[in-house]
Amino acid sequence: xxxxxxxxLSGIPVxxxxxVLLLTGLWLxxxxxxxxxxxxxxxxxxxxxxxxxxxxxxxxxxxxQAAVLSLFGRYVGSVRNEGLNWSNPLFAKxxxxxxxxxxxxxxxxxxxxxxxxxxxxxxxxxxVADSAEAVYNVDNYESFVQIQSESALRAMASAHxxxxxxxxxxxLRSHPQEVSQNLQEQIAERLGRAGVEVIxxxxxxxxxxxxxxxxxxxxxxxxAVVAARSHIVAGAVGMVEMALAELQKSGTVVLDEERKxxxxxxxxxxxxxxxxxxxxxNAGSLY
Length: 287
Hints:
There is one protein chain. The protein starts with 8 loop residues before the first strand and ends in a 15-residue tail after the last helix. The protein is rod-shaped, with a radius of gyration of 39 Å. It folds into three domains: about 90 residues, no CATH class; about 110 residues, Tetrahydropterin Synthase, Chain A, CATH 3.30.479; about 60 residues. It is an alpha+beta fold. The protein contains seven helices and ten strands.
């Protein structure tokens, strides 16, 4: 069911007219009670309840709010005109807020793509875009937003690993923008039937579950150490190659293959070691 515009009258002119009719009816009743036979009693008695009944058709619509009108269970339309409005007093009126709202999920415990238990939470910014769908397509659209958002968050977290193990693979920790965009699309697809527009969705909390947090921290530290050592070794090899090339180019020292191997070994120890080296000075001959 899509939202349609319902016709409504400006409430202030209608209010003034109804007040005049009510006062007129009361005056006529007072005149009839005073013994003036020229006063029509029945029309006078009819003006008062008619005016009171008409006053029940007045309702207020605030900024960023819609009034959903229905007549005996049939949807009539929605009114978004700000201020005081008047519609058929028989119409049932339900107010729906169109303001932007935040929803923050609790910390959900789920398994990522690798089967590791993680804790994840998200913040969803949303607003009602279609008041008719929000009222009639779901029982309680606010509860629907909460449950479907958490369901989409669980599905998204299960589709990605926590850490990136391969280049180009999207993970929860290394690709926050891609993950947030994916989450927003999944939530928007689920909430579209409730007339809700998802403005933004982003991860607010992401961590390993407490029972494996320490083990995963050690794993991350070990991976960082291996990666650092790889860079150090690659740089050291480049420096050794450069040193040998410069010595050969300048002709300062001519080394045979055995001495080159010995020099390479010493340089790699110096460059790759995590402690300061203690040099040994050879005071004798080179050979």
